[in-house]
Structures are given as C-alpha cells and as structure tokens.
Amino acid sequence: MTGGPSSVGPGSAVLHASLSCGANVNARWTWQWRELGTSAWQSGGAFQRTCSRSFAGVSHRIDWLKPDTTYQYRLALDVGNGAPTAWVDRNGTLNGTAWSPATTQPRCDDVQGAGEALRSFVASNPAGSKGARRVLCVRAGTQEIGQLNGLKAFTTLTPRGEANGTKQTAVLNGNVGVDQPGVTLEDMRIVGCYSQPGCGNDRNKTIDVRADETTLRHLDITQRNGRNADRLQCVLIANDHPIVGVRIEFSKIHSCGSESSGNLEHGLYCSDARLPVIRGNWLYDNEGFGMQLYPDCDGAQAVGNVVADNGGACDVDQTSQAAYTNGFCGYARENPVRHDLPPIHCGPSSANRAVDMVLYDPAARGVTDCGPSTLAQTGTYNADPQFYDRGRYDFRMRNPFARAKLGLYAEIVPGPRW
Predict the structure, then answer these.
(1) Fewer CB near the terminus (10 Å): N or C of the chain?
(2) What is the β-pairing status of strands 323-325 and 301-303?
C-alpha cells in the first residue's frame, strides 16, 4: 500500500509505500503519479522485488514537479506472466482508486507576519504580472479580515506548505472582493458575513468576483453561523460586462443565504461571464440554487461537481451553450413541498447540454423541466448515487454506475489541502 509522502518541497517529493502480499509475488514495480484532475499517469522509479508476507518499505524521490500542485500516486506491478499490469492504492487494494496525495509547497514571494493585518500585508506588496505572479503566503491560523478588497493583479493568496505534502491551516473571517485581474485564492476557509454584528455591509457576498482570470481553488466558502444566519451569496461572478477566464475548482461552497430572500441567495451565482470553468466542487446547503447560471453565463463548463441539498439544484436561465458534465445535480431541499425544482431547472435559454450527468431527486416531477432545444441530454443516469453520508455532507458515492459517470472526480474530496 502507498503511504504519505515526505520531504515535500516546491519542486520535489519522496513517495512511500509498504509491500506485503499473502503469498510470494515476484514482480516489476513502478511508481506512477499524475496531477489532480487529470487522467494520464507518469511512471518512474522501476524496481524488481519479491513481495512476501512481511512488510517491506520502499520509496522514490520525484523531481521537476510544479510548485503548489497536488499529485496523486500509486504503485503499479507487472508479474510478467502475460497478466495485465495492475496497481495498488493507499489501502493496499489491487486496482483500487484511493490514491495517495502529495501537494508541493508554494514559492512564497512574501510571508505575512505574526502581528500583521492581512490588508496591510496585501497593500505592502506590488502587483504581479501574467508571466510572473506574486505569491503571498498568509500566516497559519484564524484571522479577522472584515471586507478585504485591494488584492492586486496577478497575485496568489495561499497558506504555506508542509513537508508532509499538506498546506497550513488558514481561516479568514470576512469577505473578499476581487477587482483586479489574475487573482488566485486557494487553500483557505473563508467565512463571510453581512448583516450580523461587526460585519462589513458594503458587499453581501463571501467572495465577490468582478475581474477576469480569477481562480478560486481548494477553498471552503461559507457564511458565519451557517444558513439562515445571514444574507449572502457564497460566490458572485458579476460586472457590467462578461468576465472571462474564471476558474472555480475543488472547493466546498455551502450554507449561504437566508430563507427570507425567497431563493435568491445561491452557492454560486454566475451572472456575467464567458466560458467559466467550474470543476470538481461540492455545492450544498445553500438557500437558493446550488449553482445558478443567470442571466449571462454563456459557455459555462460545469464538470465533475456535486450540487445537492440546496433550495434548488442546478439552473440555466437566459444562458446559452453551457454544459453540465460528469457530475450530480439533485435533492432540492424545497421539493418535498413544491415538487417543481428538478435537478436541472431551465428558464428561457438555448443550446445547453447535460452530458453523463447523475440527475436524481425522487421528490421532483422529473430530472429537468428543460425542453430539448434548451438542454440536450446525453447519457443521463437517474438513480440514487448512494452518498457515503449525505447528512454530514460527504458526497462520495457508493453506486458504481454513478461513480462511473463522475469518473476521476468520484474520488476527489474538495476543499483546502490541509
């Protein structure tokens, strides 16, 4: 079985495994690794070893890795008798899919001081550029940020990494406004507030995206004290023109909004954008839709997401050429009473697609209320995905047919890489 990595830096890591077999197996072993969210494996570090009942530790150092990037790895074996190459995962399962992760460390251009306010830290650093990003590493722990605006162009805000292949824990209590292009936020829990005591009241969004090439990655985005405690959108993408180059990846977006808004406070509200990539996220327990593409989110690519247990599930309205692919939409919280919020809801729109989606809500009147010219379906699977623990918002799936629809996203638990 593979184990946790060690000596992880910005460009290298040492991978570990323990070999133990029920009977002696003489095989050629090879390390394999890939970037999170990709399908092609790289190979290296081949060795010949007889695997016996006793445990034998093996390791391999990989260089030339990208900084601040998560890699999944496994150990492949070839017994040389014509049998196909197999592999073992971190549980020791033959041909299993529980990969060991290793996250390389970021290259910090500056590190926030122990007593330094985040607003001052951001202001003291220059902007980056498209070819030379400025990486600002926030200190570990929890800090109050109020309404944080002023992030400069092509700046990454992230915690530092650890030698064991994780990131330091970082929690920001407050809201973030993104007004300059090229900003990346990653590996933080951001807890917004608006109407509660002590909150900034100029922006009612936990993250307010108003600029091109914004990336939100490996975040936990929510509001203080959970749903119904405040009146926020978790994430809003909006400006007076369509924003381009937005990416929202591998994040948990949840528990925002108040029932008093009448389904108008959403997990992700994509209002003005072109071709945003929304990939590998879990959106849940929000007051309105988990994901709303309205009124101008043309060409949105929503891939590998789980959208469940929100007021409504997935929406496409006055948006064209968007695609929901290899994900789950369903379980609208209000359907046991209303029955009119199907897994994918449509308003007036055209040329959208649902490809290899798991669409399921037994309380809805169908998987969609969209006409064929509004939403073309291919490969829809309408059955219970058998979530590991829906009550605790663990949306990994046991149903093998549902897992097959999600493909590589079925094994990814989003959120900070702590």
Answers:
(1) C
(2) parallel
Using the structure block, give the residue that is written with the tokens 């990416």: 247
What are phi and psi for residue 118, nearest 5 degrees? -60, -40
List Cα–Cα distances, 348 to 76, 245, 369, in angstroms: 50, 25, 11
| Phi, psi dihedral angles at 298 (to 5 degrees) | -60, 140
DSSP bridge pairs for 6: 14
Q: Taking 70 as the threshold, does the pLDDT of residue 124 lie above it?
A: yes
How far, in Å, CA of 198 to CA of 221, rounded?
A: 19
Confidence at 178, pLDDT banded by 50, 70, 90: very high
Domain 2-103 class, CATH top level: mainly beta
- Banded model confidence at residue 218, pLDDT cuts 50, 70, 90: very high
State yes or no: pLDDT of 177 exceeds 90: yes
DSSP state of 411: G
Q: How far apart are CA 369 and CA 268, in angstroms?
A: 21
Q: What is the model's pLDDT at position 21? A: 76
Distance, in Å, from the CA atom of 270 to the CA atom of 298, rounded to the nearest integer, reads 10
Q: Which pLDDT does position 200 carry in this prediction?
A: 75
Amino acid letter at 239? N
The β-bridge relationship of strands 86-88 and 70-78 is: antiparallel
Write the pLDDT tens digit of every residue in 17-36. Answer: 998 777 777 888 899 999 99
Secondary structure element (H or E) that encloses residue 375, with its range = strand 375-378
Maximum separation of any 2 CA atoms in the chain, in Å: 69
Q: How many CB atoms lie within 10 A of CB 246?
A: 25
- Residue labelled with tokens 């034998």: 56
pLDDT, one tens digit per residue, over 64-121 is 999 999 999 999 998 877 667 899 999 999 999 999 999 999 999 999 999 999 999 9
Model pLDDT, residue 286: 97
What is d(CA 178, CA 185) in angstroms, rounded to the nearest whole number?
10
Q: Exposed, middle or buried by CB within 10 Å (0-12, 13-18, 19+), for 245?
A: middle
Tokens of 202: 């100029």
What are the residue ranges spanned by the domains of the chain? 2-103, 110-411
In whole angstroms, give the CA distance from residue 4 to residue 100: 7
| Residues 6+ away with beta carbon under 8 Å from 346 | 315, 316, 317, 352, 368, 369, 370, 371, 374, 375
* Token pair in block for residue 266: 């959403």
- Distance CA(60)–CA(50), nearest Å, equals 17
